[in-house]
Amino acid sequence: MRFLPIILSTTLTATVSYAQPFDSQPSANQVEIPNIGSGIGLLDQQKEKFIGEKVFREVHKQMPIIQDVWLEGQFFQVFSGILSETQLGQPIGLVVIKDPQINAFAVPGGLFALNTGLIASARNIDEIAGVMAHEVAHVSQRHFSRSEEAFKGQTLLSLAGLLAGVAIAAQGGGDAGAAVMLGTQAALMDKQLTYSRNQEREADRIGMQYMYAAGYNPQSMADYFETMHRATSRVSFLPDFWLTHPLTTERMSEARLRANQMPRVKNRIYDADFEILKWYTMVVANQATENQLQSLASQKNIAGLIALAAFYTRQGDYVQAQSTLDQAKSSGKPLVTLLQTDIYLGQNKLDQAYTTIAATQMTMPENRAFSYKLAEVLLRQGKFAQVQTLVQRFINKNPRDIQGWQFLQQAANLDKNGPLRAVNVLRYRAEAEYWSGSEENAIKSMLHAQRLAKDNQAMSARIDSRLKQMQDERRMKI
Fold first, then answer.
1. Distance, CA of 115 to CA of 465 (rounded, Å)
2. How many Cβ atoms sit within 10 Å of the Cβ of residue 382?
3. Listed residue (80, 109, 73) closest to 214, CA to CA
4. How buried is residue 157: exposed, middle or buried, by Cβ count under 10 Å (0-12/13-18/19+)?
5. In the record, which residues are listed under signal peptide (predicted)?
6. Is 110 left (phi over 0), alpha (psi -120 to 50) or beta?
């Protein structure tokens, strides 16, 4: 049932929001947007944060999330640029889902997700920015909370039903999952459709202002609407009320007219960085063939060469990977350094791997991709203390960093003489399990850590506090 991801997207994007105030002053180019979210109370903020984190865990549990630090960083950079034009606070995060369907959605608390199919179908980064800006506008205008107020909390039931549908579909019951989602919506759509379509027009309008203020071409939002309309035309037989925000010709026309009224932004004729990002995404998502990549590489296309090197690296063919990557080294692209490190790691050339990544990481210590690649090398070298120092600062910024917790778990396991080795392994594992959606396993790991730490008062108090939080959040339902 191939239309399932599209239905999921159109439903979620129409019923979600985020509303934490942002303390910084507006930039000189910041657009004038209705400030709907800043006046909400602490309880509303806590509820939206809980919903966003709950969906974050559920999505990681049920959907094929791509765990690639470099990819996450590239898309989060675009996402952050758009967020900087709003008054929103720190988001829960951004995830990339391995799915060829064109889809993206936002969730209360500031969780944003996009499918690899959306990336593969885009012609430039501005089109992706347009989709992100539209979703950010849903969040900034608190469409979820406004819908909940208007329809007496029924949108919470709708979101819960959608999550159940995702779970069923992920387990192989595609038709059944779609039926759950559609059934959940059926009783509400006739009441909410007009309200949702008004929200869609508002998200289009405000999102276009956001993307323009962030330096992206507003015409690209209209361009991508047309791409999406063509891609979803195969499901046009569905009644409109199943879709909370169908891409009508009126909506597409309004987007084009609005873009034409804004100052022109110079088109990017060719963006090598976007081409690298696009083809690398397709390789990681297994949506590019070796023949496609070889055809690009044969033209000395940098994106094709880097993507083909990544393809061979993932295949374990390090000789071919090295030969291909050598042809792209003159480009100086950061991804080349990461791939070269991977090739050395695959060949167990740990000294060369360290030399390759350490110098680059030292010049850009705030870059998570370089830091985590260095952490991977250090783990292989048994330098667990350096890994802990390197990774902990990223965990401090983002406690939902699954890869970071996994690195800390591996580092703690290498600390053979550490008095709290077993305790730390268990509590780090618990965090990785928890944010991956395995809440029950996480609580079991933390309970085990609690028993082992009973003679250490400080550690026991720390574990007790976190364990109670996990247990309380698990009991709460959307």
1. 36
2. 13
3. 80
4. middle
5. 1-19
6. left
- Cα–Cα distances (Å) from 113 to 131, 313, 398, in that order, read 11, 27, 17
pLDDT tens digits for range 273-320: 999 999 999 999 999 999 999 999 999 999 999 999 999 999 999 999
For residue 208, give both structure tokens. Answer: 């276009």
What are the binding residues for Zn(2+)?
A: 134, 138, 200
| The residue type at 242 | W
- Any catalytic annotation for residue 376? no
User: Are residues 52 and 109 in contact, defined by beta-carbon separation less than 8 angstroms?
Assistant: yes
The number of beta carbons lying within 10 Å of the beta carbon of residue 6 is: 20
Alpha carbon distance 472, 466 (integer Å): 10
Nearest alpha-carbon partner for 130 in 32, 231, 52, 211: 211
Marked catalytic residue, from 85, 135, 275, 342: 135
Record the pTM. 0.81
Question: What is the bridge-based pairing of β-strands 93-97 and 104-107?
Answer: unpaired
Tens digits of residue pLDDT in 98-120: 988 877 888 777 788 888 988 99
| Residue/partner pairs of 266-275 with CB below 8 Å, 24 or more apart | 266/217, 267/217, 267/219, 268/124, 268/125, 268/126, 268/217, 271/124, 271/125, 272/302, 272/303, 272/331, 273/125, 273/333, 274/124, 274/125, 275/301, 275/302, 275/303
Question: Which residue's entry shows tokens 């209705």?
Answer: 34
Specify the residue for token string 């609407």: 225
Comparing 269-273, 284-288, 388-392, 416-420, which segment has the lowest mean pLDDT? 269-273
Reduce the secondary structure of 206-251 to three states and give it as a string.
HHHHHHHHCCCCCHHHHHHHHHHHHHHHHHCCCCHHHCCCCCCHHH
How far out from the chain centre does Cα 474 lie? Answer: 22
pLDDT tens-place string over residues 73-86: 999 999 889 988 88
Cα gap 82→80, rounded to integer Å: 5
CB 132: neighbour CB atoms within 10 A?
Answer: 27
Phi and psi torsions of 94, nearest 5°: -130, 135
How far apart are the C-alpha atoms of 304 and 275, rounded to whole Å? 8
219-232 and 174-213 helices, crossing angle to 10°: 170
For residue 26, what is the DSSP state?
P
Nearest-Å Rg of the Cα atoms of the chain is: 23
